[in-house]
Amino acid sequence: MASSKDKNNGMSQVTYEFPYMRQPEKKSLGKFIYDKEKGTFMSRTPSSWAKILIFYAIFYTVLAALFAICLQVLFYTLTYEYPKWQLDRSLIGTNPGVGFRPISDDTTQGSLIWYKASDTESIRPWTKLLDDYLAPYRNKSLLPGGGKNQVICDYDSPARPGHVCAVEVSTWGECTSENGYSFNKSSPCIFVKLNRIFNWVPEYYDDVNDLPEDMPEDLKEHINNVPAKERKQVWISCQGEHPSDREAIGPVKYIPQRGMAAYYYPFTNIPGYLSPLIAVQLERPKLNRVINIECRAWAKNIQYQGGRERTGSVHLELMID
After folding, report:
1. Which of 69, 164, 240, 251 is most buried, by CB atoms within 10 Å?
2. Helix (H, G, I), strand (E, B) or coil at 26
3. How many Å apart are CA 95 and CA 196, to the nearest integer?
């Protein structure tokens, strides 16, 4: 950088030996948008803008075409009839979860069932939840094809190909909508189910000499009294989670039976399939206290773990005022 004097006015003028050291000329916003001298819009000529627009139009068109081709290839490998990745190869895995109904729509209430037996308004939300959930079980017209492919099964006659085994609502006794699911009698029915896993087949505890040590004694006795061919079931046990809860829960009744029969498995996504249910009726639970309950599924290939990382079981609380 060097300085020189203007001969006319004697003022110093700064000159730059290297052009890159020259400070850029400040432009107004209007001149930046449109510069008449250079004929540019936002520092680019119309031809430059046209080239950029054409480039990006071609670039994103090709990108969208490649994305569409990839999606088409992916969809070609998928089907609505069965998942591509199954059992050990899937994210779901091979250990089915256990669920129960009714469960409140209010997430802040968690797994608590709380009502006043003498108050119809207190009972109604719970019975409505069960009515809504059990509607396809009671009304076959709600199923695909009107449930025409449902058949009555037993251990000697499983469902034919393309058919599914019906869940017989008529065997639920007091655990029906007409009886209010016995909520008003302080002996509520809670429905327990296994979550569906495509193509999963249970490994049954059907040998009375090979039952796990931690299995409840009353369940062991029950299995011992069941005919050998009917022991192929996923057994269910519900009991108080802690000693005080076991004292408070009272007698437990399982309707229509204490297990989910083998002829309901595997689940293969045939239209009209309904998950088997067990109605667990708590006949005389203590009132005015919270009872912690654990319902557990028993099969050789159902892994169990309690606590926060719960598997193979479900936790719920019951309080009846």
Report:
1. 164
2. coil
3. 10
At 218, the amino acid letter reads D
Report how far residue 145's alpha carbon sits from residue 271's, in angstroms, rounded to the nearest whole number: 8
User: Which residues neighbour 228 within 8 Å (Cβ) at sequence distance 6 or greater?
Assistant: 206
Count other Cβ atoms within 10 Å, centred on residue 175: 26
| 203 class by beta-carbon count within 10 Å (0-12 exposed, 13-18 middle, 19+ buried) | exposed
pLDDT digits (tens, 9 = 90+) for 257-300: 999 999 999 999 999 999 999 999 999 999 999 999 999 999 99
Query: CA 317, CA 248: separation in Å to the nearest integer?
Result: 12
| Cross-strand partners of 113 | 318
Residue 311, beta-bridge partner list:
305
Q: Is the peptide bond before 158 cis (omega within 30 degrees of 0)?
A: no
Write the pLDDT tens digit of every residue in 74-116. Answer: 888 888 888 888 988 888 899 999 999 999 988 888 899 999 9
